């Protein structure tokens, strides 16, 4: 819904304009940061901006729900390493973005959420019954790093720059900016926008003495490890971390949020907890270099459970942009305060003349890690495959689908139980993985996929294939965004594990009350056919009941030249009761013990 603009239509190409309208200046400021994608549904406050952005060659995407626009923008920021922009119509539109705003906050994503607002002469009157109006800033102030309104045209530069400064500085996160309708077309006479390094810290390095101290500890360690988190991917620091890992010659341990594999390090990279090699590497380590992680609950704050062995002798080096985060979750021996993009090259420079010999157990970890994946694939093939009395086991789905992952593709994850199966059974090691781990917000899959793939194409000119592995309940949150994938001709295949229930929640009922409980609120119709829904949106659809048909179905979907939806019938009992290493997953929530 949008209110009708009572003013006459304005020609955005009017020749009597001498200055730069506010909406154009905002685009200029975003372009100075390398932003060239825009997600949202335009209303009268933004139609001028949308039209101008498209004329400049931006990728402009209107989804079917504003929350999806926010998730698309968040995925764009992850795949590009830059801030991203999402637009919400005043009133209900920006209210619909609340889930995406909260997710961006918890996931530390630098998204700029823009909204229009009624003209201040309307907002400030003492009136009842105003149309499409609510005071918006108070709704979001506690969910963003910065909230502001551009009250006067000449505030445009300072407000937008402060928004980007806050979004990218310290711990990254979302900001909220609005502007009332009466200033949309006001003009500014200003010089060209400043480059980012003229008004904010960019690629900030660490104290050089601390870098030397860290290098000395690395050289002296017997069993060092690199602990690699989510921000290594979102800052696009993989190439520099590869150089550092080569010099350290040690295992790389992924946090649950940092599951994108760094190109060239795939064989020595292991998921914390979900890989046996990761547990052995952690317990034996005497030095940890932590990059791009909050050291949060999913890694037991770096001091509990598997970290307890060698705690007395283990040294910690922590690269963190926010100085207020140092020492919060565990003591740190050498804090390196700065941006990964600045600090990692400093460490490389400090170590380049003295590369380490391979860590004593590195070769064994690599051999054992691959052996474990091979064993898991073989073990999955002993489970139900859909040809007998039982539907396809979720472990089998995870193996078959990830073995079909396209080279150089983007992997997108969504769902509850399905993701837990993927953590253990995944057979692919993608360099780009998009999902939200900290907030646990299901339903982001399709908007994450479309946002990441479109932003990646806008940045590189190459349209890479995407594979979304999701579950039925999550897929339905934003299923309308399949139309965006069709409209933009994305090479996206969505593999949907279908058990017609909320799998994790069914498991909770069973563990709480035992077998036979009513499981209220967790089951839904078995008549739903996602392949047919996909076809209705213009996708290629596949319906799969046998494990041996999963890979061919995925191949046909990619070959169709359309986005694809592969409906895979899975065993509901196994999906709710046999999640691998579920006891490990539950330790993340061990209230009071960490």
UniProtKB/TrEMBL annotation:
It comes from Sphingobium yanoikuyae ATCC 51230. The keyword tRNA processing does not apply. Belongs to the TPP enzyme family. GO terms for molecular function: acetolactate synthase activity; flavin adenine dinucleotide binding; magnesium ion binding; thiamine pyrophosphate binding. This is Uncharacterized protein. Its cofactor is thiamine diphosphate. Residues 211-347 form the Thiamine pyrophosphate enzyme central domain. Keywords: Thiamine pyrophosphate. Residues 425-568 form the Thiamine pyrophosphate enzyme TPP-binding domain. One of its GO terms (biological process) is isoleucine biosynthetic process. Residues 25-128 form the Thiamine pyrophosphate enzyme N-terminal TPP-binding domain. GO terms for cellular component: acetolactate synthase complex. The keyword Coiled coil does not apply.
